[in-house]
Design goal:
DinB; DinB/YfiT-like; two-stranded antiparallel sheet; Putative damage-inducible protein DinB; metal ion binding; mainly alpha; metal-binding
């Protein structure tokens, strides 16, 4: 758990870089990929992951500008990736400027349960990671090679000298 704002910011920035690499590989065409006909598209999930950052933080008292036109999924993968970069940087700045290390131990109602602000920030990261995982599956289904977030995708094992990658 986070003891200092700096602890959170360091992890947030690491996770944002990984998410940015996933988003940067999207194509406009890939945004239409769905798991099933009624399911969310890759674009909808990527935009939700992006646009929800300021909404999540504002829900817990931080002042941060919302995503422009947050109701509508952009048709441009670049716009989603650029917006994520902007909002993730603004989120870090808002937290650094508006909360202190002592703020992390304060509790709030978080979706029906009492949580510390440190737990709330961990929830934000888990939300990003959850949806990033969904994106990875849809990216592969769209015919693109996914970025190896915490390890290499199957295509990169050969570059590591592994001819029979683990299942």
């Amino acid at each position: 758990m986070y003891v200092t704002i700096s602890d959170f910011i360091n992890e947030w920035k690491r996770e944002a870089v990984l998410t940015q690499k996933v988003l940067d590989e999207l194509t406009d065409d890939s945004l239409k990929q769905q798991v099933y006909p009624e399911g969310r598209t890759l674009g909808r999930i990527a935009w939700h992951l992006t646009a929800s950052i300021p909404d999540y933080l504002a829900h817990f008292g931080l002042k941060i500008e919302k995503a422009v036109n947050e109701e509508n999924v952009p048709a441009s993968a670049k716009e989603i990736a650029d917006t994520f970069k902007k909002l993730s940087e603004e989120a870090a700045l808002a937290i650094e400027q508006q909360w202190t290390d002592d703020s992390l131990s304060q509790t709030q109602n978080a979706f029906g349960r009492e949580e510390t602000n440190a737990q709330i920030l961990m929830g934000l990261i888990k939300h990003i990671v959850h949806h990033r995982g969904q994106l990875t599956i849809l990216i592969r289904q769209a015919g693109l090679k996914p970025f190896g977030v915490y390890g290499p995708p199957k295509e990169d094992w050969v570059n590591l000298g592994v001819t029979n990658p683990p299942l």
